[in-house]
Design goal:
six-stranded mixed beta sheet, alpha/beta, Rossmann fold
């Protein structure tokens, strides 16, 4: 079976410095994979590179979505092909309401205008599942939003767009306990045989609510260990030192 996402020997520079040093990663269709690792290990660099951020220079390697290289695709082309990135620090867009932003996004992804009535029904149901006040739809995108509201809006986008590949970069950062549970459960509800997810996180707490298939540990720009949920528990109790060269497990 063709992997939904395949990263092959990816080497990436940022501002002239090599950050990713030969990353190999495969995420099958329908699976949820998690990336963990120390600060500065390259986790967010990988997400941004996969999505086509222009500040990340690909030195060598390849990124394939369902077997097709996306290296020559612009970020908007990757989005239309089925890729989605949830930002760690979402940007505010003053003057653009959540409703208009989401309806325009769906039009661009689906290639046709979404009928108003159908869109409102989709939006209402998605917001209900994320325990969002209906009045939220009339606010300007991320303007004055709390950390939890920003992250709910990101998952709201994902639930409407229904991407093939979702890249979630530290979605749990800055969340209180209740918001963490609601958002994590929202992510888990979006599991689908035709959708894969790659989650970047520092902590186990988010993963308590999510059904995951594999965990990958990043250090110094490479995947140094892969495993299942028990690997998360080991990292939580022992940290990363046991993975460093010369340190016994």
């Amino acid at each position: 079976m063709t992997a939904m996402l395949e990263v092959k020997d990816l080497r990436v520079k940022v501002a002239g410095k090599e950050i990713l040093k030969g990353v190999n990663l495969s995420v099958p269709a329908g699976e949820v994979h998690v990336i963990m690792g120390p600060n500065g290990s390259g986790k967010s660099t990988l997400s941004n590179t996969i999505m086509g951020h222009p500040s990340y220079e690909i030195v060598s390697g390849d990124i394939l979505l369902q077997g097709r290289s996306v290296l020559n695709d612009a970020p908007d082309e990757r989005a239309r092909a089925g890729m989605f990135l949830s930002f760690q620090y979402p940007t505010a867009i003053p003057g653009v309401t959540v409703t208009n932003f989401l309806r325009t996004s769906l039009k661009n992804i689906r290639g046709a205008e979404v009928p108003v009535k159908a869109f409102r029904m989709e939006l209402k149901e998605a917001m209900k599942e994320l325990q969002m006040d209906p009045a939220f739809a009339a606010r300007y995108v991320n303007e004055g939003f709390s950390g939890g509201e920003k992250k709910r809006h990101e998952i709201l986008q994902m639930s409407l767009i229904k991407p093939k590949l979702a890249l979630l970069d530290e979605t749990d950062s800055g969340l209180d306990i209740d918001a963490l549970r609601v958002i994590s459960e929202g992510i888990d509800r979006l599991r689908d045989p035709g959708r894969s997810m790659l989650l970047v996180t520092h902590y186990q707490r988010m993963l308590n609510y999510i059904t995951l298939d594999k965990v990958h540990v990043f250090m110094d720009g490479r995947v140094v260990e892969s495993g299942e949920r028990d690997l998360v528990e080991k990292l939580e109790t022992q940290g990363y030192d046991w993975l460093r060269p010369g340190v016994a497990s």
